[in-house]
Design a protein that fits this description.
Blueprint (H helix, E strand, L loop, with lengths): L4 E5 L3 H7 L4 H21 L4 E8 L7 H24 L3 E5 L7 H13 L7 E8 L1 H17 L10 H5 L12 E4 L18 E4 L9 H12 L13
Parallel strand pairs: 1-2, 1-5, 2-4, 3-4, 5-6
Length: 235
């Protein structure tokens, strides 16, 4: 069985470019080509939900010139890819502190989200200006306000209530989390949603990540025993 929800930390664009003696932006541009290939591959493999860590809250701390270039690249990519997204019946979704994005990015995102809202195929989620700790904090604050205003009763408080107040409230928990480039950390990505996810780390830099690499990750996932706290005999 393929993972229902696969999430990817697309890491290594800058280092990939530097190893080739090229500017970091060359790596980001090449990373866009990898996104296109992996979205097509995930759709081909019948992955229902694909979530890509596209830009973190911490990424705002990068040099302004790099941030500006990344935002321009994002806008251009959305414009270039809309037709294929629609043609392949993919539904676009976005999570994160979207109000912090430049107007041009938000406008392009909103346009494609609206244009694909009736599509019934794979749901492609872009995590933009996203941080997992901040997402949980925001959810807890919203719930606290509702408790204070007698909208929610503490007697009904459980983990599903928190899930219902996250950006991903309409998505299932992550089954498989992939990180490229050899780094083995979560980097504040989907902290609540990956509680029982299978983690897969590869040394391949994101621009070099191919359909075959995605297939390897899926095969590894299929060969693991997911026990969710139970024993092997109980599964």
């Amino acid at each position: 069985m393929v993972p229902r929800h696969t999430a990817i930390i697309m890491d290594g664009n800058g280092r990939w470019a530097e190893q080739k003696g090229m500017p970091r932006i060359f790596g980001h541009q090449s990373g866009v080509s990898a996104v296109r290939k992996i979205v097509e591959a995930a759709n081909k493999f019948n992955i229902k939900y694909l979530t890509l860590f596209t830009f973190s809250l911490e990424n705002w701390n990068r040099p302004q010139s790099e941030v500006d270039t990344l935002m321009s690249l994002l806008v251009q990519t959305l414009k270039d890819e809309f037709e294929d997204i629609f043609k392949n019946n993919i539904k676009l979704n976005a999570i994160g502190e979207l109000d912090t994005l430049p107007d041009e990015v938000r406008d392009e995102l909103d346009s494609i989200i609206q244009g694909t809202k009736d599509n019934t195929g794979m749901i492609l989620t872009l995590a933009l200006s996203y941080g997992g700790k901040q997402e949980i904090f925001k959810a807890v604050k919203e719930i606290s306000d509702k408790v204070k205003n007698d909208i929610i009763c503490l007697d009904n408080f459980d983990d599903s209530l928190i899930s219902d107040h996250l950006y991903t409230r309409n998505l299932p928990d992550v089954d498989l989390l992939i990180r490229t480039s050899g780094e083995q950390r979560i980097s504040n990505f989907l902290l609540w949603q990956i509680a029982y996810a299978e983690l897969y780390f590869t040394d391949v830099y994101w621009p070099d990540f191919t359909e075959e690499d995605l297939e390897k990750a899926i095969v590894e996932y299929q060969n693991r025993e997911r026990r969710f706290g139970k024993t092997s005999k109980q599964v």
